[in-house]
Amino acid sequence: MARKAYGNHATQVNLGTHPDDGTSPVGSAEWNAALDKEGMLGFSEQTISSATLRTIASGVATVYDTITVVTSESSTTDDLDKLATTNTSEYDLIYLFANTGHTITLKHTASPSAAGHIFTVGEADEVLSATKPTILIRKDVSGVAYWYGY
C-alpha cells in the first residue's frame, strides 16, 4: 500500500489548459484550492491483527494510518519492539492503542540504533491502553528512522 498524505492534491490542474468552464461539478480552481483549516482533523482507526489487516510479527508492526489499534500475534499478550517505517515519513504521528482485552507492551529502546526502534516519553517500557493513546512521532537521525514518544 502506498503512503497516503494529508494536504493539497499532489497533482494541480493547469488553469491555463483547463479553465473553470462550468462543465464539471468541481472546478479546476476548486480542485487546486488550499484546504479549509477550520474544524477537526479526524482519522479512522486501523486495527492490526492476524484476523484483519496486520499482525505483530516478531515484535514488529507495520502501520499505514495515524490511528492504529494493535492486537497481539497470538494469545492476548505481546511485545511491540518496533514500528516498521516503510509507509511513513519523518514527522508522521502515530496514535497507538491496544485492542480491548489485549496486553501490548511497547518496548523502550534507550539507544535507538535500527529503523523502527521506539524511545518512549517515560524512558521505560509501557503498556498500551485501549482508551488512552500513546503518541509517537517519527524522527530521522543520521539517516535512520526512529519513533519518539511525547
How would you describe this structure in keywords?
1 helix; mainly beta; 11 strands; three-stranded mixed beta sheet; six-stranded mixed beta sheet; 150 residues
Helix-strand layout with pairing:
Layout: H1 28-32, E1 45-48, E2 60-62, E3 67-70, E4 77-80, E5 82-84, E6 93-98, E7 103-106, E8 118-119, E9 126-127, E10 134-141, E11 144-149
Parallel strand pairs: 1-3, 2-5, 3-6, 4-7, 8-11
Antiparallel strand pairs: 6-10, 7-9, 10-11
Structure description:
The protein is 3% helix and 31% strand. It has 2 domains: 7-39, no CATH class; 45-149. By secondary structure, it is mainly beta. The relative contact order is 0.15. The strands form 3 sheets. Strands 1-3-6-10-11-8 form a 6-stranded mixed β-sheet, with no helix packed on it. The longest helix is centred in the first third of the chain and has 5 residues, at 28-32. Residues 1-24 are annotated as: Disordered.
Return the string of H and E elements. HEEEEEEEEEEE
Could you give the count of β-strands?
11
Order of strands across the main sheet: 1-3-6-10-11-8
Question: What's the overall average pLDDT, rounded?
Answer: 82
> What summary fits the major beta sheet?
6 strands, mixed
Strand content: 25-35%
The number of helical segments is: 1
The structure class reads mainly beta
Number of domains: 2
Intertermini distance: 27 Å
Whole-angstrom Rg: 19 Å
How would you sum up the global shape?
Answer: elongated
Outline the low-pLDDT stretches. 49-53
Bin the helical content: under 10%
